[in-house]
Amino acid sequence: MQQYPTATLIHRLDFGTSGLMLLALQKTCVQSGKPVTSRYQVLNYDPDNNTSHVQFEPITGRTHLLRLHSMAIGHPIIGCDLYDLKYSFFKAERLMLHAMSLTFSHPKSNEIMHFSSPSPF
């Protein structure tokens, strides 16, 4: 960061999230009043622990989007320290949220850039 003092974190799902992050030398972002959207797919369900492994795809970027959407459908993210402390927070030592892929157009070359990081859980 000393070499790039203007670098700004422009993508990270949440503070406790593992996986990929994206930094930019200049931040240009426009927040609008558009509806927030995410997609999800249940990958598997563990009836013994009453937990599901879910793959989320945030369509719009807003603070705590995936945490809020998962809570709204009745399945808060395990280890979440902000929402549903009664049940999900104590099921893990950390937030069970991982950024496993990131795709974007390079701002200068318009080349499609894709990065991935396998989930540790």
Strand segment count: 8
Beta-strand residue percentage: 25-35%
Number of helices: 1
**Strand order in the largest sheet:** 1-3
Q: Residue-averaged pLDDT, rounded?
A: 81
Helix content: under 10%
Write structural notes for this entry.
The strands form four sheets. Strands 1-3 form a two-stranded antiparallel sheet. It has a two-stranded parallel ribbon with strand order 2-6. The protein has one helix spanning 65-72, and strands at residues 8-11, 18-19, 22-24, 38-46, 51-58, 98-99, 101-105, 112-116. The protein contains one helix and eight strands. The model has no long low-confidence stretch (mean pLDDT 81).
What's a concise summary of this model?
By secondary structure, this protein is mainly beta.
Chain-wise SSE layout:
Layout: E1 8-11, E2 18-19, E3 22-24, E4 38-46, E5 51-58, H1 65-72, E6 98-99, E7 101-105, E8 112-116
Parallel strand pairs: 2-6
Antiparallel strand pairs: 1-3, 4-5, 7-8
Looking at this protein, list some descriptive labels:
two-stranded antiparallel sheet; two-stranded parallel ribbon; 121 residues; mainly beta; elongated; single chain
